[in-house]
């Protein structure tokens, strides 16, 4: 219909008029029998609109296509796949635009009924599989009980045994066979599956047990012990906030938290693992697509139900049911899998996801160019010119954003089309993320070049804030002596070429309240070599963990103008194979003092102007903070005033406005202690001070003699925040 309409226009020779953008409309109250050409004739489903868009693209494009999603819920039963066929062409883009639209990979659970012991239940279709129930937007936990003390157990090759009778209930727990044990360690959060319980032994399923018993920070030899739980059997429901899904029976059970009312609560089971996949092939990538203002919610991740979760670091795990070469754990390393995201982007270029909420996602949030095992399209890596901006992430179970892969093709691509580059993650808010897999992080960038992580606001996260690099130096040119000793190179090449990691920027992020569930972590954490990579103007706060942590093999990073006001040490360096990193102009609150050019201070006002400015501007850029959920001001001052005097009686005040907005109603007060000295402004005294820059005002003093101390006070209203600022400074002036 639309096609003939458009070609009709062309035939009629009306091409001299600007062609209107080609728009399609979708609404939850629309119908797929409509033609989608206006809000009154909206389609009902994204899938149907996708077909119409494909038809249009396959004929021709003379303008962008914009698909407008009306506000509301769009449940999708199958992953939405955007491939080359869905991509813009001839310089035009396909824009999916939907402020207020929520694309859901879940099923709503209704009809809750209260049972005995305060446990409620509801029916869902028999066979529904999910590891994630969300109640009023928050992740429920598994039905679980804590084991009082890991040290009461002996760990054997077949399972866990105990002699203390206080654990005998394990043998009497209905459903224990098929339940699982979770171990929270220093930097891992491991899950292992139970085969059976008898004779004071939990016999564990293989090979997940084997794979949780070797390597580093293991179930039997954790580097730190943050507890062990037995979980995922109905009989284990104990505290409020816990759930259990009986898939075969189609019944979900939940014990409400205090104050929660399941009659009125909104509850979803995450069902899809991948809600949206954007990906083509290396030869024919998906491209020129934007998603604006659209929210994504309600996914799950089922893999731990089959292989457990032999966690290695930040979402990488042993994902195959194999023991590799049992004499050496290093045999596993080249084969680690990645936890998939609910949104997956690979073999793709010129893709933007902007705005929207990413919430209640059961694995990762967004996976960009991960290894093939983390992409439902089956084609991993190959992500270039991908932007994720202005979005809000909360209640993501794993990494909120994983950019890059960890296997060989990620760091040494066998096909140039696999290389990840120009990934931009900017102005996003991450609030209370890594909600289930606590050893995951808001942002992980493994191997990519020319990529930027800037102006993100990270608030409340259990492990590190931003992680850059992977591989502990083992894949860098020349290899790592440490991994030579461990025997890794019996299982993979020792490379003579550098990895794809270089020329990245981590700037102006605000990272706070991190690391509350683990150890061995940093606000900003690096691994391996990455030449020309700058970490600058970040503000780290409110954590007892490390501020900056250059872990194993970190090499060629430059850290400048960061403010590390965490209470842990501002900088920790792993000595193993770590080299050639530069630190300059950084300010810490506590930690080492033997880094020339960097200082410890106890008040931001003691930092350089550049760092005070960075502290104010860190996180979402000031001008973009309005109406952003959970975004807050950093608490740093919005300006400083620097006063200087010269030998000719001239007083100069430089007002550095750190905000994007102007200061209004500006009043100056210039005075000196000496009577009889008067001041004449040179030029007009501004009543407004421009945003994000320096304004210089000069006065000429007269009437006195010798050297006098001159004070300049400035009072203003910040037009964005409405806050009144009063600053000042003084200098000696010779008359
Ligand atoms: C999208 O691709 C996945 C993986 O190939 C497939 O399972 C799914 O059915 C596809 N979705 C649709 C709507 O065809
Ligand atoms: C087409 O869409 C892109 C991406 O949203 C945008 O940058 C560009 O300005 C649009 N072009 C036109 C002609 O509207
Ligand atoms: C996104 O989350 C924020 C904060 O919870 C909420 O105010 C807003 O309505 C949400 N937007 C959508 C489209 O759900
Ligand atoms: C963070 O989310 C969890 C659920 O995933 C919830 O129990 C907790 O109260 C939340 N914390 C904050 C500070 O919102
Ligand atoms: C739960 O909400 C329902 C519906 O509003 C109400 O009738 C009921 O009294 C509430 N229960 C409690 C315990 O507040
Ligand atoms: C994993 O391998 C073990 C041992 O070979 C086997 O007993 C088990 O059934 C396998 N598990 C799965 C989920 O395939
Ligand atoms: C990506 O966008 C740029 C301009 O923004 C354009 O030059 C390039 O051709 C696009 N790439 C693809 C694969 O469409
Ligand atoms: C040291 O780091 C700089 C800056 O990234 C880089 O240009 C240089 O190549 C590195 N030198 C060595 C020997 O790695
Ligand atoms: C930091 O110094 C400023 C200026 O001297 C002062 O107003 C402020 O109270 C100090 N802040 C703290 C936390 O000590």
TrEMBL record:
Residues 1-21 form the signal peptide. Keywords: Lyase, Signal. The keyword Hydrolase does not apply. It comes from the Eukaryota. InterPro entries: Pectin_lyas_fold, Pectin_lyase_fold/virulence. SUPFAM superfamilies: Pectin lyase-like. The keyword Lyase applies. One of its GO terms (molecular function) is lyase activity. PANTHER family: APPLE DOMAIN-CONTAINING PROTEIN, SECRETED PROTEIN-RELATED. This is Pectin lyase.
